[in-house]
Write a sequence for this structure.
């Protein structure tokens, strides 16, 4: 009985403690509103009704237990508020307002995913009314993005659409006023508003929005703020260029599209990847390509004129003459960069084969005196251009640096005919970043302006492939240089091998891969024949044994790595399921080139090779069949010979 009475007294004291904790927490919430917001709290929480209790006498043990419970309650009430709230959460149910917000939030997510915008509108209205102050950044962003989508779907896109969206952003930012540490939230919201204006073609409003951010001390040093402000200034300057030299439908999305396109598979593109000077850089196959570029862009050939036969458009001439008569104020500044060598081969007017993703202007229809054209073009630079370069540079050289700024900055420097500055920025970026993009861009610009630096160009593409083996663009450029005699076979084989370790490979890559095997095998035989003729000994048997496996596959760690790769590729590239996929979804060129490569690795009797040969024979595809037969007849049998060389 004593134990029962003691437990009953403890429970009674515990209930009183819980009621006191709840009362004090409610008072604090009404004062600061930190957890659940303010407003009418009459129905916000559960009411704890105190039940009438019968008076009963308690003994000394019961009074002692009650006293201990009250002391524990006092210690709990002396702790920090957030700890008390956590204790209340364990002691009783959550406040009703918090539960309803959670339910409305989940309901809004479901309605938005189902595109039930009318129902979502009512749910969002109730949720915002119950949240008079800001919530977390992610929840606020979700709520107001849904509000904008509802406005777009149900409110129409009339002339006041942007005004309504602006008001939504203003309401969003007004919810942050009460927060003391909300500067980052505020500028992130304003950046979203600027991007909204930009996506709807309202560049001036976007510029006005970001102009405040770069002047505000809390956000002026933020890299993302400077990046977006620089991009908007870039677009403002580009929109003011004469229509005849601008790329059709060029906008700020071009930078990100070009970045994606140059990253992996999308290098073959439409007009954006054509040459700015009328030379298609992607399809250039001429072996004398480098020699022609060096001849046409020689520094010593000062009498060489920029002779293009297409007639100059009147609009462009008028724009250039106006620029000569009325130079912009920024040209008067001492800070304005100038090119001390107007006839230098680093001018964009002498670039050969540079894609429009890097130089988004059309220069192929300008004719006349080269010096006059260059000087007139440079007068198109204004304050928008200079400010854009400044802010993009700030973003690129910030801590941490923003890689997203490298491509638009390089574009802008090239558009301003500042090729040396662009190369300098890329050289610094190659030291500061461990990604492939700066190396790839630097190699392409060096190819266009300094094509004689073959060693540097090779190293840039190799470094790009080392950092991103899946990059098709860098590999295709090396293949192109190899076909023109400017890149050796052995390093190309190594680059292709690392690429095929990371990707499935295109037909052109597999074709060059098989050709590399054949060239290495042929050169090995030729080298041995030279040694035999010099020493006067040996014979055909020695030649045959020498061509079984060239040294490039056996020196150092190459033997073990190739043995592992041969076992791995049995299932990765040449398994039965892979063959069925190649037969069903790929063209016959891929099938033939992969089979030719497999014949060099595993021999002509390998299952993939025999199946591909049979399929091409049945389809009477003579061209691909002859290609495959040529490689089967001179198979290297790499895997078989590597196993034979292993110690037994």
């Amino acid at each position: 009985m004593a134990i029962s009475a003691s437990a009953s007294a403890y429970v009674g004291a515990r209930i009183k403690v819980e009621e006191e904790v709840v009362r004090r927490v409610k008072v604090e919430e009404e004062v600061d509103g930190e957890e659940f917001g303010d407003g009418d709290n009459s129905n916000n929480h559960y009411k704890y009704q105190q039940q009438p209790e019968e008076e009963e006498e308690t003994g000394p043990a019961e009074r002692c237990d009650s006293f201990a419970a009250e002391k524990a309650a006092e210690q709990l009430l002396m702790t920090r508020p957030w700890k008390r709230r956590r204790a209340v959460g364990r002691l009783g149910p959550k406040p009703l307002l918090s539960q309803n917000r959670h339910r409305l939030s989940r309901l809004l997510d479901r309605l938005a995913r189902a595109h039930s915008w009318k129902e979502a509108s009512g749910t969002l209205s109730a949720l915002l009314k119950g949240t008079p102050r800001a919530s977390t950044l992610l929840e606020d962003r979700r709520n107001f993005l849904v509000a904008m989508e509802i406005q777009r779907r149900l409110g129409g896109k009339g002339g006041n659409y942007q005004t309504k969206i602006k008001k939504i952003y203003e309401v969003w930012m007004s919810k942050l006023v009460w927060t003391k540490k909300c500067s980052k939230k505020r500028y992130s919201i304003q950046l979203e508003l600027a991007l909204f204006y930009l996506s709807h073609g309202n560049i001036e409003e976007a510029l006005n929005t970001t102009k405040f951010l770069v002047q505000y001390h809390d956000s002026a040093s933020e890299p993302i703020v400077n990046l977006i402000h620089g991009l908007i200034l870039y677009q403002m300057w580009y929109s003011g260029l004469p229509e005849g030299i601008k790329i059709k439908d060029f906008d700020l999305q071009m930078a990100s599209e070009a970045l994606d396109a140059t990253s992996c598979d999308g290098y073959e593109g439409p007009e954006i990847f054509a040459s700015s000077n009328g030379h298609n850089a992607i399809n250039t196959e001429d072996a004398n390509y480098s020699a022609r570029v060096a001849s046409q862009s020689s520094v010593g050939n000062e009498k060489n004129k920029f002779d293009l036969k297409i007639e100059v458009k009147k609009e462009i001439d008028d724009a250039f003459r106006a620029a000569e008569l009325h130079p912009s104020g920024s040209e008067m500044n001492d800070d304005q960069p100038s090119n001390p060598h107007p006839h230098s081969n680093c001018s964009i007017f002498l670039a050969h084969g540079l894609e429009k993703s890097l130089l988004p202007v059309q220069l192929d229809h300008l004719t006349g005196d080269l010096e006059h054209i260059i000087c007139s073009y440079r007068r198109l630079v204004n304050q928008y251009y200079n400010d854009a370069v400044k802010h993009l540079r700030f973003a690129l050289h910030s801590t941490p640096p923003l890689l997203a700024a490298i491509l638009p900055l390089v574009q802008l420097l090239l558009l301003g005919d500042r090729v040396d500055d662009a190369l300098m920025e890329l050289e610094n970026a190659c030291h500061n970043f461990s990604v492939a993009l700066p190396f790839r861009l630097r190699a392409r610009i060096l190819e266009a302006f300094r094509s004689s630096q073959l060693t540097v160009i090779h190293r840039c593409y190799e470094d790009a492939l080392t950092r991103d083996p899946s990059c098709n663009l860098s590999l295709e450029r090396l293949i192109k240089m190899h076909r023109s005699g400017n890149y050796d076979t052995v390093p190309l084989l190594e680059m292709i091998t690392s690429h095929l370790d990371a990707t499935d490979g295109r037909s052109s890559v597999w074709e060059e891969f098989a050709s590399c095997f054949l060239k290495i095998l042929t050169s090995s035989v030729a080298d041995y024949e030279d040694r035999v003729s010099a020493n006067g000994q040996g014979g055909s048997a020695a030649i045959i044994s020498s061509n079984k496996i060239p040294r490039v596959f056996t020196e150092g760690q190459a033997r073990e790595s190739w043995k592992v790769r041969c076992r791995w590729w049995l299932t990765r590239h040449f398994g039965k399921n892979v063959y069925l996929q190649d037969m069903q979804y790929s063209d016959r060129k891929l099938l033939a080139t992969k089979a030719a490569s497999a014949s060099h690795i595993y021999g002509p009797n390998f299952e993939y090779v025999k199946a591909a040969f049979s399929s091409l024979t049945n389809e009477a595809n003579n061209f691909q069949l002859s290609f495959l037969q040529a490689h089967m007849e001179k198979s290297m049998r790499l895997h078989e010979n590597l196993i034979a060389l292993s110690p037994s």
In short: The chain has a mean pLDDT of 74. The two ends are 87 Å apart (CA to CA). The first helix runs from residue 2 to 32. The chain has 29 helices and no strands.
